[in-house]
Amino acid sequence: MKLTELATLSKGFAATARKSESSNTLYDIKMFDRDLTVVTENPRLHIQQTTVEPSNVTEKVTPGSVVISTNTRKAAVVSELSGTVKLSGHFVLVEFSDETIDSWYFVYLFNENSAVRRQIEKATQGSALVKSINLRDLGGIDIPLVDPALQRQLGETYIKTLHRNALRDAQQQLQTKLTFALIEKELTNA
User: Fold this and answer.
1) What's the confidence (pLDDT) of residue 52?
2) Average pLDDT over residues 104-131
3) Which of the pair, 146 or 39, is modelled with greater confidence?
4) More confident residue, 120 or 19
5) Strand pairing partners for 9?
6) How far is Cα 52 from Cα 110, in angstroms, rounded to an integer?
7) How many CB atoms lie within 10 A of CB 138?
């Protein structure tokens, strides 16, 4: 099923439209990376399908909203850490029309599924350094649907994998800091 058959896609504010906005009210790449890599304790708390009034669809994202970065060509679910913020121009809000697809299942498909990733790469435009995907091409991506219970299960597995990866990365950073601190201590004692 095409993405446009499952969801409404809305682009965030263009750079000129957001100059007056303070940086802490705009959803940006730092928030996106955090939402994608630091999974909160209970990510399903905010995954109720959100309905946004049509007049505000490009203005705000709330916890539970699904967004796509047109530059990184990755999707994420907005966490409660990001709160309610305005969407900057390098993002697309994905608003599902009904309960046909689980949000985390969609994020898994968009970010990891080889068939979907091939479609995204084929639709990507731009130079070797700066590539992005436009709204029309995003909407044309085929999204494989499975039983809703299986979608939820696969979404849960993806959440757990992201959470484990984030914990592993944090542990690795702590081990590195400890190693460097021990080396530093050895140097001062020498």
Assistant:
1) 39
2) 87
3) 146
4) 120
5) 94
6) 22
7) 22
Strand order in the sheet with 7-11: 7-11, 91-96, 66-69, 74-77
| Cα–Cα distance for residue pair 118/149, rounded to 1 Å | 26
- Please list, in sequence order, all residues whose beta carbon lies within 8 angstroms of the beta carbon of residue 112, skipping any fewer than 6 positions away: 158
Checking DSSP bridges between strand 85-87 and strand 26-27, what pairing results, if any?
A: parallel
Cα–Cα nearest to 7, from 64, 92, 74: 92
**For 108, phi and psi rounded to 5 degrees?**
-60, -50
Unique residue bearing structure tokens 């990733």: 117
pTM of the model: 0.80
DSSP 131-149: EE--HHHHHT-B-----HH
Whole-angstrom distance, CA of residue 93 vs CA of residue 95:
6
Question: Measured between alpha carbons, how far is 76 from 112 in angstroms, rounded to an integer?
Answer: 12
Q: What is the pLDDT of residues 14-54, one digit of tens each?
A: 655 445 555 558 898 899 988 888 665 555 544 444 433 43
Q: Which residues contact 106 (CB under 8 A, 6 or more apart)?
A: 66, 75, 94, 96, 143
What's the CA gap between 132 and 95, in Å, rounded?
A: 20
Strand partners, 96: 7
The number of C-alpha atoms within 13 Å of 24 and in the hemisphere containing its C-beta is: 1
- The whole-angstrom separation of Cα 146 and Cα 140 is 19
Q: Residue 41 gets which letter from DSSP?
A: S
